[in-house]
Amino acid sequence: MIFCRHVEKCVEEKGPVESLSAIIMKKLLLLKERIYPYIIAASGAWLIWKFGSIEFLASDNLNDALTAIITVTSIIIGFIGAILPVILSMKNDSTLDEMKYDFGENPD
Hints:
Layout: H1 7-14, H2 20-51, H3 62-91, H4 95-105
């Protein structure tokens, strides 16, 4: 934040000066962007709990649903575990840099 008494001098030295209200509005917008997903999720969960007739724990298919969730999660974790070494090995691969160097030096 830049606060100057002489606005013209400050603009010349440090660029344009933002007003205090503009700074506060930006911070409020950032706070709103960070917080609205939690508010929507909490209100949706409350609506389902209050007005929904879904009883998850009393369901006969709870074991099958948990088994399916664990299976899908295991597949995702396995895929990430298999692709991670490939991505890390590409980090040290310099073929792209070599190609850029060759094209820059030898245009024919």
